[in-house]
């Protein structure tokens, strides 16, 4: 514990008379990271903007509590979730908060608190070596990984910038040199491997160092942050904007890390814009920063991020990163759709940008965010596949199908080329496990990624895509996972919505192509999903196609051989060792259906894959420390095939209402589901219970301009592009 | 399909001029079941009462849709959840709705629709024999069990009563005789075993028959309904009020069936009150009907009923039964606390009573419902144990501990004497499986109770109470399960809240006593729970104490022997065959702790049971049809003991915040937990991490007037009643 000291007799101009933002000079100390004048001394004037007022109240409560608790700058000791870890996190939050509160309220106590804490860091920091709990990743000084140190710096420098002109020169000098310059040096020249990477850890380091450069009026630090340690532009913030985002603003590591990475991108961009407007940073690369904000929001369902790659499924738009991103995005674009996101978040930030959001919301300017179907291309040039998002509507309960046809996404990427997930009725139905990790829970390996993240969560079998010979794509080696899918076709609107993508190189000699079609049907509450996965291999192999789902199994159309007294595991390695087998079965052509219920809606998964064996089971085997969630799966298995086609149909239907004790539509509306190949066209026929039928024809040739013809019920039918859809009326005289 | 016919030229007085309620005579046809004049012709006048207006809109939409669909009175065929089952359910709802709508709006189309439907029933009903899908239980005619027929009658007669005076005499006669008198006859003299039971099925039958008696002006039917077929009073509605409720208004089958049973009790009581006010039915037996309404509400957490016995966990106060009960209760008592329940329900009923609720709510008269700790005694005389409810506060997230020390509760009762459950932080934490059933889902045995309800859900091991030699209490035979617990002590307020109960006779030669203490501790967000279960047996036995919980296991203090590659089952029968064993372990005296997380809060379950073996596992073995939910359990096992004490402590602690990525208090605040016996006092000592301690002393003698003394840290401490609590400050100079 460092005793609090109080500095008396420092006279300050009233906050309301602070100079407006001006060009920085080496001598002045006024805030440079934001247009602080916009919020200075606002105080009670925020009352007309409830979102801002609420934020002010919340921050006051939090910082006042931190002030009451006294300054606590402990010697670093614990890993993530431990006491010193959490205290240093609380400190940077309190520092940031005290800075904002000082600007807004003009209350000198906040500046004093920030100074006292920073003086304590000035005593502690210079003596620190590598963190004692450092693990595999780059060691920090305050935290077990340097990433957290960078985050400390991003928050800390913002708080410091806001109070710096309230400090006497000797304190300012002490803090400048002993805290911020040392941290910036450690995180830049002292950590070249991290700083010059093309990776989100580097983005945080770049942002922290660059903002420190602005505040210390040190252009050298700024230039290193923007262009890498050698200032060549081969690394640094601008290069990351070039390489980490696709032309559609999709971030290479996927939505979960896009959220995380977004904060340093938007905050540093705003700081660059404030200090070097001539860089036109928000227009850089066709406005990729603003695209990234919108793409983040599009990559959610009910506000929760699609949990691809190493992702925690409980992450939503209600996070600090997105409060910042929405505020900065709105201040730059005045797009009223961003306001409805802020409304849903119920939060904003205590910055000039947050004030703009709160003002505009209070003025009733919000418009609905245009959630829509779209293809988010991956790769710096947009050529590395992408994420295909098919939305049945913009509502929070409308069905969304997401096909993951992206590149690897580096070390946090999963081996899941041509994976897909489905949301329906407000819930995740076809699921992605995400990461095996209990974030910040110390008893679970200090909150770090668990061994099961490698042995299970990243493996191909943990996803809804093809597994060859019980191995993972690319042998589960991400450094060799360079081959990417080709997105062959995408259609986001109308009666024929779908995605076709192809993957070669994930398994030696194997090419597979997947068509996913979202099929709106009259009278159905939600679309059906057709899934055609064709494999071409160079030799006979075991092909598995898992489907991980959420819900309680209700019924199967085929007989099951059940393991009810001892439960075996499915395999030995590559994730298979984590799968318990509950039952297996071999469906006949007309009974390959499994039905489950989730939140009062039924889902029937129907397969027309000839010769398939079905495996039903659950994750959680070989898990002595209870690190895994236990979630059900269905697996289609084909043995000894070289070329094969997995043909599946998922149908949401019916409703069980617990309060009213009523059930409707618990039976599938589908009577039959068949597949045949005619020339280079796959013909999938859904026979309805009323004896009508829907035929979906999928051509090998995916050129949207090419026409195809097929004879159905004796009549030639034509369509353009790869997918055709035809309704066959029910024959005369037939009924259910 | 019966063609709709329209009756023309029937002149009716305008609804607003209908005569007010008058004594019935054999000739008149005006409504008798409610004071229909209160709502007659209200129409647009309901606009100031939004709850009623919303109900009107909802009912109109539903009945208009039914009218548009046309009358469909199918020949009975399907079991629960099937098409004919659901159609007959829809019909009685539509009939009831049409009746209410006719009264409120005066729109003759509703009366015509009710008449047409009833005429269709008049054609169908007389020809019906026992239902073709009848199972074990008493067969109905319209439905697979006669219970549903009774429910049809309860709704149908109310709808008919409301339109009867709008019908021409010949139609009225046809419907009187061919539908209602036949149904009433079938359900009374035609089904004597059901009608004269003391059981909720009989209550529905009594209510339907009795109300039919009032409507048909047939006092004989009324008298049979009130006093049984022989009118002796040994059966019938009044006898059920005597025997099925305790003096505290607790219903013998438990909260779930209390909800279900409540509807015929309150509706028939209201009808009796309207027709025979001299019976003072709402004052009967110290106002037991009104007590039953309040007790139902007290038996909930967050609006959901405690899921004891055969219960579906998704049942809340948002059900038709409780809309009726709250409206009838409010109309009778004008207790403003009932209004807040109606507010939470967001619903009411289209009756004069519902109108009163809506009016009072619109006038802002609602007050919070006084959720509180209480002992709900069981048994007609209150001597058969009871349910001890310990609430940490009235809020929806406040901790609630419920000890189930009741009698069997007949055929839907579980073998779970001295079971307990815990809610905390808005969630069920220590759980009761409830029933093994998928209500109204046809693919699951027609929606009936599943075989696993007998083999698992009712068995003792499926509950959180003592199991002797892997068998269930009373050999799982409910007819011989006559012995009841003794509630020895209950304290619902202050620093010492708890329940002590004793059970003898559930196992031959075994008596066991359980003390559960809810321990509020300064600084803890939620109380800790102390659990002392002492067993005295006549011979060495295997004693098991399961704890079924909700959450993800985080850590154990002791080493585990895990079954990670094949998973065995725990036993062969009595529910044990449904338990998978994940791991076993033998804790040392200082490390017997298991920690899990649920919804961001940690729970540490600490045992101080000497010589105990711990079993960790999950339900779901021997379940080839996936009928069971898979839920985790911890089991304490003692082998070869005669007398034993299971000593456990459950501590909620900490918080994981996913949005803010912060974790606090993930470590238990408890450093040690010990138990010793001094004379006739059990001494449980909780040592805190800060070196202070809390001692709870539990005396054998449970007389609340008796004083006890114990020497603690060299100082004599005294207390009165069985439970004493003493805080030991931390010794000088010690810290964490």
Name its key features:
15 helices, twelve-stranded antiparallel sheet, five-stranded antiparallel sheet, alpha+beta, elongated, homodimer, Glycosyltransferase, Beta-galactosidase, Chain A, domain 5, disordered N terminus, lyase (chains A, B), Chondroitin_lyas (chains A, B), signal (chains A, B), 736 residues
Layout of SSEs?
The structure is a homodimer of 736-residue chains.
Chain A: H1 50-69, H2 83-105, H3 108-124, H4 146-163, H5 169-187, H6 192-195, H7 200-215, H8 219-227, H9 237-243, H10 255-275, H11 284-298, E1 300-301, E2 304-305, H12 320-333, H13 336-345, H14 352-362, E3 374-377, E4 386-391, E5 400-405, E6 419-424, E7 427-430, H15 451-457, E8 467-468, E9 486-491, E10 497-507, E11 510-519, E12 528-548, E13 552-556, E14 561-562, E15 567-568, E16 579-585, E17 593-598, E18 601-607, E19 613-619, E20 632-653, E21 655-657, E22 662-664, E23 670-678, E24 681-688, E25 693-699, E26 707-712, E27 715-720, E28 723-728
Antiparallel strand pairs in A: 1-2, 3-4, 4-5, 5-6, 6-7, 8-12, 9-10, 10-11, 11-12, 12-20, 13-17, 14-16, 16-19, 17-18, 18-20, 19-20, 21-22, 23-24, 24-25, 25-28, 26-27
